[in-house]
Design brief:
By secondary structure, this protein is of the alpha+beta class. The protein has two domains: about 240 residues, Endonuclease Chain A (Endonuclease, Chain A); about 230 residues, Endonuclease Chain A (Endonuclease, Chain A, 2-Layer Sandwich), CATH 3.30.870.10. It has a ten-stranded mixed β-sheet, with helices on both faces. Strands 9-4-3-2-5-6-8-1-10 form a nine-stranded mixed β-sheet, with helices on both faces. β19 and β20 form a beta hairpin. α3 packs parallel to α10. The two termini are about 30 Å apart.
C-alpha cells in the first residue's frame, strides 16, 4: 500500500501543474438563420416546398461520394460552415478538407470547427492555431486535456473526465444542408488509404432537420467544455505563418490534382450527379437525436442528457425485423436480454459487426466475444465482416490496389425496413453511457429497403455467419460459415487470426473494463 501511495503521489506531482486555464476567451455565437437566399437555399427551395414538413435524405455509403459531397458543399458555402468531428487526421483527406475550408473563409464564409481533443498534441495545436488566426475561422477543442502535464497520465489522474469524449460527427453548410454519420475525417474513411478501408455510411439531409443539427452544434459550441484553441496554446506568429504557408497549400493542391485519387473523385457517381444536377432526395419525416453536452460532466446513470431513451421506443416497436450495423458491439447482459425478448415476440434480429480480423479495436472485440453464444442461443443472427475486401474496386471505378484490410465503421439501425437511424452511435457501453453521440431518424420505406437489401448483399459477399454447433463430444462451440465463393467453408476459430491474437483477446475479456469499451 505504501508503494501504491508513493506511485499515486508521483503521478499527481507529474500532472499537478496540468490544469486548464479559465475558459474566458469563448465568445457566444449561434447558427445563422437567414440563409434562404444563399445559392443552396435557392436551389433547394423547390424540393422543400414540394414536401412541406418533410426532410430530404440521401445516403452516402461510398467513400468517394461521401468526400465529394463534403467538398461540394464547402465550395458552395456563402455564409457559414459548422464542422464537428471526433477525429480529424493529419493526412491527405485532412489536408484537402482544410484547404477548401480555408478557401471558403477567404470568400468571407464564417467557419466554426469543433473537434474533440482525443488526438490533439503539440503539433496539431500549432496547426490549428495557424488556421484559427484567419479572421473568419474559429476553432474550439471539446473537453481538452491539460497542456501543462503528461497527456497519457491524465487518463489515470483525470479518469472519468478526459475518458469521456465528444463522438459527434456532422458538417452543416449555410444552415441548409447537413451531413451526419459515422465518418471521421481521414484517409481510411474515404477510400484514400491503400492499407485500410472502412465500410461506413453517412446521410446528407435537407429541410427542417438541418436547423435541428445546427441547434445541437450550438449547444456543444457554447458549452463550458468547448475551449478556443487560442486559450490552450500560444502562437503569436500564427497569422504570419498562415500567409507564409499559402504558396505551399496552392502547390499541394496543384500536385494532388493529377493523382489517382483526385481523378477518382472527379469520376465518382456523386460528381457526375452534381454536374448533371441529378441529385434525388428521398422525403419523409425526420428527427434528430443527440446527447446533450452535459452528459460528459454528469453521472453516467443520469439519463436526462442521454439520447438512448429517445431511441429505445423505436426499437421496442419493431414488429418484424431489426437490422443493426455497428463496428463495436458490446451488448452487455441487459442488451442480450433485450434482444432475447425481441426474438421471443417474433422479431428477426440481424446484427452485422466486425470480426476479430477486421476490427481496428481488438479490445472491444474482447468485450463482444463473451456474448456471442448467449445471443445465438436466443435466436439472434450474428454476422461478422471478413477482413478481406469483397472487391478491389470501389463503386466509382477507383482501384484499391494494395488494400489489405476491410473494416466496418458504419453505424445504423433499420426498423422493419421502414425507419432508419444513421449517426455516430455504436452499440457499446461507451457510446450509451460515456461519450456524446448524434444521429437522424428517418421515416422512409424506400431507404429502409435499400439498406436492408445492401446488408443482405454484404452478408452474402463479405461476411461470415456465426453459428452454434455441438461437436462429437457434446461440447457447444462456435463456427464461422463462409459462402462468399459459392461454396460452404467452415472455420472453427476466429477466421484469419493467429493463436496469439486470440489468446490476447481472450485474456483481455477477463479484465473488468467493459464499461469503458
Amino acid at each position: 500500500m505504501k508503494k501504491l501511495a508513493t506511485l499515486l503521489a508521483m503521478l499527481l506531482l507529474l500532472t499537478g501543474c496540468a490544469s486548464l486555464p479559465p475558459n474566458t476567451q469563448q465568445i457566444y455565437s449561434e447558427a445563422l438563420t437567414c440563409t434562404g437566399d444563399t445559392r443552396l437555399g435557392r436551389d433547394l427551395q423547390y424540393g422543400i416546398s414540394e414536401h412541406p414538413g418533410s426532410s430530404g435524405f440521401l445516403l452516402l455509403d461510398n467513400g468517394l461520394d461521401a468526400f465529394v459531397a463534403r467538398i461540394a458543399l464547402i465550395k458552395a458555402a456563402e455564409l457559414c460552415i459548422d464542422v464537428q468531428y471526433y477525429l480529424y487526421h493529419d493526412d491527405l483527406i485532412g489536408h484537402l478538407m482544410a484547404y477548401y475550408l480555408l478557401r471558403a473563409a477567404d470568400r468571407g464564409v464564417r467557419v466554426r470547427i469543433l473537434l474533440d481533443d482525443i488526438s490533439a498534441g503539440k503539433r496539431r495545436d500549432i496547426y490549428l492555431a495557424v488556421f484559427d488566426s484567419h479572421p473568419n475561422i474559429q476553432i474550439r477543442l471539446f473537453n481538452p486535456f491539460s497542456r501543462g502535464g503528461i497527456r497519457s497520465l491524465q487518463f489515470l489522474t483525470r479518469f472519468g473526465s478526459v475518458t469521456r469524449r465528444m463522438h459527434n460527427k456532422s458538417l452543416t453548410v449555410d444552415n441548409q444542408v447537413t451531413i451526419v454519420g459515422g465518418r471521421n475525417i481521414g484517409n481510411a474513411y474515404f477510400d484514400a488509404d491503400p492499407e485500410l478501408r472502412f465500410g461506413d455510411i453517412d446521410a446528407m439531409a435537407i429541410g427542417p432537420v438541418v436547423p435541428e443539427i445546427s441547434r445541437s452544434f450550438d449547444k456543444f459550441w457554447n458549452n463550458e467544455l468547448a475551449y478556443p484553441i487560442a486559450s490552450l496554446t500560444h502562437s503569436a506568429e500564427s497569422a504570419d505563418r498562415l500567409e507564409q504557408d499559402r504558396p505551399r497549400w496552392d502547390e499541394f493542391i496543384a500536385n494532388e490534382s493529377s493523382s489517382e485519387y483526385y481523378q477518382a473523385l472527379q469520376a465518382s457517381d456523386m460528381m457526375q450527379k452534381l454536374r448533371s444536377d441529378q441529385l434525388e432526395f428521398d422525403w419523409g419525416a425526420a428527427k434528430v437525436l443527440y446527447d446533450r453536452p452535459q452528459k460528459i460532466t454528469s453521472d453516467v446513470d443520469d439519463e436526462r442528457y442521454h439520447m438512448a431513451p429517445m431511441l429505445k421506443p423505436y426499437v421496442e416497436q419493431v414488429a418484424g425485423e431489426l437490422i443493426v450495423i455497428t463496428p463495436y458491439f458490446v451488448p452487455g447482459t441487459e442488451g442480450v436480454e433485450f434482444f432475447t425478448e425481441l426474438v421471443k415476440r417474433g422479431v428477426r434480429v440481424k446484427i452485422l459487426t466486425n470480426s476479430l480480423a477486421s476490427t481496428d479495436v481488438a479490445v472491444v472485440h474482447a468485450g463482444y466475444a463473451k456474448y456471442r453464444k448467449p445471443l445465438l442461443r436466443a435466436g439472434v443472427e450474428l454476422y461478422e465482416l471478413d477482413k478481406v475486401p469483397s472487391h478491389r474496386r470501389s463503386e466509382s471505378g477507383y482501384r484499391l490496389s494494395g488494400s489489405s484490410r476491410a473494416s466496418l465503421h458504419g453505424k445504423a439501425f433499420v426498423f422493419d425496413r421502414k425507419i432508419l437511424f444513421i449517426g455516430s452511435l455504436n452499440l457499446d457501453p461507451r457510446s450509451f453511457n460515456e461519450n456524446t453521440e448524434i444521429g437522424i431518424l428517418f421515416d422512409s420505406p424506400t431507404l429502409g429497403e435499400e439498406i436492408g437489401e445492401s446488408i443482405d448483399d454484404r452478408i452474402g459477399k463479405a461476411a461470415f455467419k456465426v453459428e452454434l454447433f455441438t461437436d462429437n463430444a457434446g461440447v457447444e462451440s462456435l463456427r464461422w460459415v463462409d459462402t462468399k465463393q459459392g461454396e460452404i467453408e467452415y472455420f472453427y476459430t476466429d477466421p484469419h487470426t493467429s493463436f496469439w491474437k486470440r489468446l490476447w483477446v481472450g485474456l483481455a475479456g477477463l479484465l473488468p473494463i467493459e464499461s469503458q469499451l
